[in-house]
Amino acid sequence: MMLSIKQQPFRAAVLVLVWGWLLFLVLAPNMLVVGASVMTRDPSTFIALPLNLDAYRQLFNPLYLEVFLHSLYMAVMTTLICLLIGYPFAWALSHVEKRRQMLLIFLLIVPFWTNSLVRTYALKLILATNGLLNSALMSLGVIEEPAQLLYTEGAVVVGLVYLLLPFMILPLYSVFEDLRQDVLLASHDLGAGRFATFTNVIIPLTLPGVLAGVMLVLLPAMGLFFVPDILGGSRNLLVGNVIKNQFLDARNWPFGAAASIVLTFTMALLMFAHRLSKRRLGEEGA
Amino acid sequence: MKQTLLFLSNLSKQFGGKTVLDSLDLEIYDGEFITLLGPSGCGKTTLLRMMAGFDLPDHGIVTLSGVDITQTPPEQRPLNTVFQNYALFPHMSVFDNVAYGLKMEKRPKAEIRDRVDEALAMVQLEDFAKRKPHQLSGGQQQRVAIARAVVKRPKMLLLDEPLSALDYKLRRTMQVELKRLQRELGITFVFVTHDQEEALSMSDRIVVLKDGRVQQLGTPREVYERPANVFTARFVGQTNFFPGRVTRIEGDRISVDVFGLNRELSKPPFRIAMNQSLHVLLRPEDIRVLAPDDTDGVAGKIVERNYKGSTLDSVIELEDGIQVMASEFFDEDDPAFDYSIGERVRVSWVDGWEWLLAEESDEPLTDEEELAADDAEH
Amino acid sequence: MRWLSRSYLALVYLLLYVPIIVLVVFSFNDSRTGYSWGGLSLRWYESLFNNHAMVQAMWNSLWLALTAATVSTLIGALTALALHRYRFRGKKVLNGMLFVVMMSPEIVLAISLLGLFLLLGLQLGYVSLLLAHVTFCLPFVVITVMARLAGFDERLPEAARDLGASDFTMTRTVLIPVIMPALMAGWLLGFTLSMDDVVVSTFVSGPSYEILPLRIYSMVRVGLKPEVNALGTLLLVFSLVMLMMSQWILSRSKQ
């Protein structure tokens, strides 16, 4: 039953407000970015006509291509490490007694609520040349000279893993929680050992969680520009750093916009995969 | 001579200090349909899980065709389970679900296809091979679960309350279906249920369990007509318990005083003494309701009447307050036959239809068991 | 097996918390270099509060977070109610848009808003920050409130309407009280997100309104600043209090 505006003024007001906000502050700005990416760079007005695909062509300029590939490499490494640590972690967490689980989950979401800049900075205390890790390794006699840990690719990956690990664990934990024990028993009952059950049943059933986790880790791992700024030096840049430089320093908006559309495109792909994986299990895609 | 397929000897199991199985022995024959019946918490599901290999006993031995399989993991046991909520793999099609066990045996592709098709045909789901479990109804999912288990040609099929999630009508259909399957396949079915009606109609033999111990093992007729103890009598079907007292013992005949009536009965198989108190058990359908001016029986009045379609069920309160359940078939000669509340009647039964049980020390039933027994009736 | 999985959990938690513990400990370190222990001291807290620009940035951030959390809670709650109660065209699109906002990299949201503000000629400062912060907090509030509404007896609003309440009155007297815990939790989350945001703020703030995360950002880019340890510790305690309040509100409302 649909009621008219006169009958439900409150409903109409709510819908106008919500739609207005989203159209004005989400849809319009994003259209703007798409528009900017096909326009020409202009020193005074940022963007100008004519329309062209120069910005996208510039993405394949060897100089930038290298930066992109390096960023992608670090993001993928981050995601893989998070997955390798997070998958067994989420499994173990789902097997802890329910009462303790609440506390452990709480400890996992604390980082989500705390300042990520400050936490990145804390890593710097540990990784610096005369920082804690070097001091510890030297006093243990593992190394004689302080090793260069900061301003390396490794430092950026460590920083990203440190910030993003909980975002991998939480969706994985939720799929492990939903994993029905009798389905695993059925697999054993039908003759599958531990390994066969893992590859044939557990992996497919936890796939939506894996993809959700990948989505929540991979995208920020390409965008969190302050991590390389603090830990990585000038040679280990993320796509986020490129976008930020193009918009705030080089003032090349079309190129910055094109780079950000690459990120959006990656997100769209991941969302599609996630939806598909849930469909397969007969759950409604988000 | 019946051949023993599975032999459980002296099985014990405790969970967190609570005894679930208590030195239990059980012999299961090749090709029979045997039902484990009991209220929740009686140990029937644990017993089934031990046969499947999901739980290991603290003590005791499980042998299959003479081979000790007590410690064998479930994937190496030649028996399969139909789970209570089906436990179908949600990410696989019906075909892949059924094929799973054969793939684990590394069968050739063509053989897998043939056998899966055959199994699906057996449960009438040939046309659903490509569907996903969530696209099927509950009854269809149930059939897939059965096909998935029998396609491996197990020596024994374990069914853990497989029909409990289905509605009444579907449950009835599936009961018939399961019996047909068992006849066609000729394999042993071990069926777990708390529904005594289901147990009576489907089984070759019934194992009545309570507190991890076997209360009675016998055919449905034996369990229903000659319950071994008060628990079984109360749990399986409805029963009137009349207090009786032995007044005379002579050879294999005894006299028992029930409500002041002197009844001549055959001597029960347990030891008996003069003036001993006994339970005289009568099923509601064995009760005769007579006119108030009849010379036989005990006087009472109707306090409840329920029209049940084929029978008229009534409750009669005797003068000393004892309530008697009666269930009478409608008589073709008198279709208008009925009672009114408060109507005076007399209650009796035909000699020889009663069953005698000795009084037990741990009577009466606790509330919990009453509830469980109630559950079982619905 | 059990022992192994327990120690694994403990190890990962240890790694997650070591940097935070180091930070807190070092905030009380008297040494200037920041690497070696020079005795217990509160000097960095003192120097923090004597830093006028820093204190100003702190007030700016608090005010921004307060207003952003409040506005996003209001709009978010109305959105959640609309999604839950009304059937309207484009409902799926609205849902999808919120999901996209939540999932999309912050930096994409940041540049798109920057473009919009410049196109409109809006001076970058408090207003642009507020609009941006409300936008990225919104989906989190909507989800928190929707989760609460999902466990809500559908017949309550019908009963209220049946007893003569208008749509608006019913919302005020039945729905709002029911979703109150979720509103408070959503507000706390929005407040914290706003206080911590670096990425979006980097793009949409101007010199007229400096906020705390950006101040910290400029401090930590080069070298080590002991004041940051002190500030970080304060922010950590603050976030912990907020999170515990939120958990307490949500868990109490479940009973």
Description of the structure:
The complex is a heterotrimer of chains A (286), B (378) and C (255). With 286 residues, chain A is mainly alpha-helical. Chain A has a two-stranded antiparallel sheet with strand order 1-2. Chain A is globular and about 70 Å long. Chain A has helices spanning 9-37, 54-59, 62-94, 98-113, 116-127, 132-139, 153-178, 181-189, 194-223, 226-232, 239-249, 253-280, and strands at 40-42, 46-48. Chain B is an alpha+beta fold and 378 residues long. Helix content of chain B is 25%, strand content 35%. Chain B contains nine helices and 20 strands. Chain B has helices at residues 44-52, 94-104, 109-122, 138-150, 168-185, 196-202, 220-225, 230-235, 367-377; strands spanning 4-15, 18-29, 33-37, 59-64, 67-68, 79-82, 156-160, 188-193, 205-210, 213-218, 240-250, 253-258, 261-266, 277-282, 287-290, 298-307, 311-318, 323-329, 344-349, 355-358. The longest helix of chain B is centred in the middle third of the chain and has 18 residues, at 168-185. Residues 365-370 of chain B have low confidence and may be disordered. Chain C is globular, with a radius of gyration of 22 Å. In chain C, 79% of the residues lie in helices and 0% in strands. Chain C is mainly α. Chains in contact: A-B, A-C. Chains A and C meet through α1, α3, α4, α5 and α7 of A and α1, α3, α4, α5 and α6 of C.
Q: Between the first and last Cα atoms of chain C, what is the distance in angstroms?
A: 35 Å
Order of helices and strands of chain A: HEEHHHHHHHHHHH
Q: What amount of the residues of chain C lies in strands?
A: under 5%
How do the strands line up in the largest sheet of chain A?
1-2
Outline of chain A, from the CA principal axes? globular
The end-to-end distance of chain A, rounded to whole angstroms, is 26 Å
**Classification by helices and strands of chain C:** mainly alpha
- Mean pLDDT value of chain C: 86
Number of discrete helical segments of chain C: 11
Number of strands of chain C: 0
Q: Hey, which two chains have the biggest interface?
A: A-C, 84 and 80 residues
Instruction: Summarize the helix and strand pattern of chain C as letters.
Output: HHHHHHHHHHH
Sketch the major β-sheet of chain C: none
What integer is the average pLDDT of chain A? 86
Low-confidence stretches of chain C: none
